[in-house]
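Weekly structure sync, notes
Attendees: PL (lead), two postdocs, one rotation student
Agenda item 3: pending single-chain targets
PL asked that the sequence for the first pending target be pasted directly into the notes so everyone works from the same version. It is reproduced below exactly as submitted, 409 residues in total.
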Amino acid sequence: MEFEYKARGRTGEALTGVIDAPSKEAVATQLTNDGLTPIQILAKVGTGTTKDNGAIQRFRQRPPNIDDLIFLSRQMYALMKAGVPMLRAIGGLAESARNERLREVLRSIRDDLESGRALSACLARHPKVFSSLYVSIMQVGETTGQMDEAFMQMARYLEQEKHTRARIRQAMRYPVIVLGAIAIAMVIINLFVIPAFAQMFANARMELPWATKLLLGMSAFFVDYWLHLLVALIGGGLLLRHYLQTEHGAYRWDRIKLRFPIIGPIVLRSILARFSRAFAISFKAGVPLVAALSTVANAVDNHFVGEKVRGMRNGIERGDSLTRTAAATGLFTTVILQMLSVGEETGSVDGMLLEAADFYEREVDYDLKYLSDALEPILIVAVGVMVLILALGVFLPMWEMAQLARSGS
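Predicted structure, written out during the meeting:
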């Protein structure tokens, strides 16, 4: 947004101008830092002067995705490694960031840094952009004086996370396309194809097979109530979305999707890989064990697994070992528990956790590679059953009508 301002200079002279900034407060801060005294700040007409325009502008702003965060982390690593001051690095990236929302966030962080806040505290003010894991790693980097390594660790973690998400999307593309095609075919058949045969079967005045009666009943229901079904589908989808955004709904859904056949174990292993890598990064960076578990519980992006991780934290606080608390969750395999036990005995828990993350990621890659092969028979059977019912329902009456016509002649 562009703001017109009136201010007084150091010697009292009147000054006016235009500044591009996310808010009036940011304009006032920038003017004060330049040694000016703000008198009046007004948003320019046509740049979001009203509350509604501001809402529309926020709606159009795409939230920063994982690629934006990877790019930011790698740039910050290079700048920190080169010895560029933090404030200058953030200010430079605030002007060159590709994402508009991220530019505004970086400008806000720059202003907070100028006011004396630590970087981790500035990042924590934007939880929708920077996760608790990101904030914790930055906090450790500030404590140890290794901010460049902290940014590099987050860049590598986010790159691995992006790779896992891409593999899952790639594996699910074929089943989603097939199921979508089946749904579209069912709608077209029930609304347009079956009604064309219904009149012909009615004129024949013959006993229809069960498959034909089933198809005619489904088609009549679709034709008579298609609008009600559409409204119910949209309303149910909105209600389900609202429920899944609640804490109870998100917990139940995260628990249910881990029990899906074929897909559930893959999702669980990908979550455990994320847990192991995030925990290893936190532990290696020097985050205390209990604090690391609290941070990772929010980073796994699954409420059910996060609750299990918080249970591990409670066990550690009671004095139990990491291996024993991990075994109590029922999530980890025997191999991983043995690796954790060795890590505790040798003092290399972070190394063992990285090995566990690599193990889970290899398992996920292998499962995703053959996911289409596992789902293909199920999809073929579903399509075959649909085609069989359609063929029996349409061709059997036509066959009987042909037999009657032949015998009558």
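Discussion points:
- The two ends are 84 Å apart (CA to CA).
- The CA atoms of residues 105 and 126 lie 7 Å apart.
Action: rotation student to compare against the earlier draft before next sync.
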